[in-house]
Amino acid sequence: MEKKINFLELYKFIRVSRVNNLEAIGFCPFHNDEKESFAFSIETGLWKCFAGCGQGNAIQLISRVYKVGEKDANDIFNTLLNPIQEDYLQYHATLLNSPVILNNLLKKRGWSKEIVLEYKIGYSDERFTIPVLYRDTLLNIRKYAIDGKKPKMLNVTGYGNAKLFPYNMLKEPELFLFEGESDCLLALSLGLPAITVTSGAGTWKKEWSQLLKGKKINICYDIDEAGKRGAEVIASQLLGHCEIKNIKLPITEPSNADFSDYILHYG
Description:
By secondary structure, the protein is of the alpha+beta class. The chain has three domains: about 5-80, Zinc finger, CHC2-typedomain (DNA Primase, Chain A, Alpha-Beta Complex); about 85-160, DNA primase DNAg catalytic core, N-terminal domain; about 160-265, Dna Topoisomerase Vi A Subunit, Chain: A, domain 2 (3-Layer(aba) Sandwich). Helices cover about 35% and strands about 25% of the residues. It is built from ten helices and 14 strands. The strands form three sheets. Strands 1-2-3-4-5 form a five-stranded antiparallel β-sheet, covered by helices on one side. Helix 2 crosses helix 3 (about 70-80). The protein is globular, with a radius of gyration of 21 Å. The mean pLDDT is about 95.
C-alpha cells in the first residue's frame, strides 16, 4: 500500500494559522504576508498564494522555499518523508568530547575549531562525519575514514545523491569551488567563501548552473588528470551562466595534490 502523506506535517516550513477540513490556511513564505493568503491541501500538497506569488505542487514549493532545482527539491521531499535516523549532533558532541581526536583532526586538516562548530563536524566509528544540511533538513552524513580505513567514505544508505555543500554559502556572489569537503572546510577556515560537490570530480547537475547564475566561480580542483577533467567539465557547464576562473595550483607533487596539500605544505 502506498504511503499516505500528511502535508500538514511535511510542510513544517509553512506557518499555519488554522485548518478547515482538509485545507490548511497560513502565511505565504514568499512575501511579507499579514493576511493569511497561503493555502494548501493536506491530502495532495497542492498550494496557492492568493496574493499572487504562485501555485503548484510539493516539489515546486520545496524548490522555491529551499532555493534549489527540481532534482534537489525531489531529494529534499523524499528526505522529509523519510528522515535520516542517525543523530549527527551526537556525533558532533562525541568529537568535541574527544580532545585528542579533535586536535589531531584540526592539525592534520588545517580546519579551525570555529568551522568544526559551525558545520557540526563529528566523529563516529573511526570516521569524521560531515552532515549535509539544507536549512534544517538533514540530507546526508558524509563519513570519512581518518586513518586509512576502507572504504574511504560512506554515505547514509539511500541518501548519497550529489549536493552542493555547504548550503549557506550559496548566497555569496563569489565562490571558490573545491573537489572535496576537506579542501572546502580548510578554505572556509581561511575565510574564503567555499563550496564543494558531495561526489566525484566532474559531477555536476545542470540545475546548479542556473542556481549559481551571475556569480563569480573560482574552480580549484586537484592537479591529477581526474581533477583537471572535472574542472573542465564544470567550467563548460557554467559557461554563459557565471564568470569562471580555473585556478591551477602551482605544485607538481604529490601527483594527486589538492588545495590542502598546497596550503599545509607550501602555503
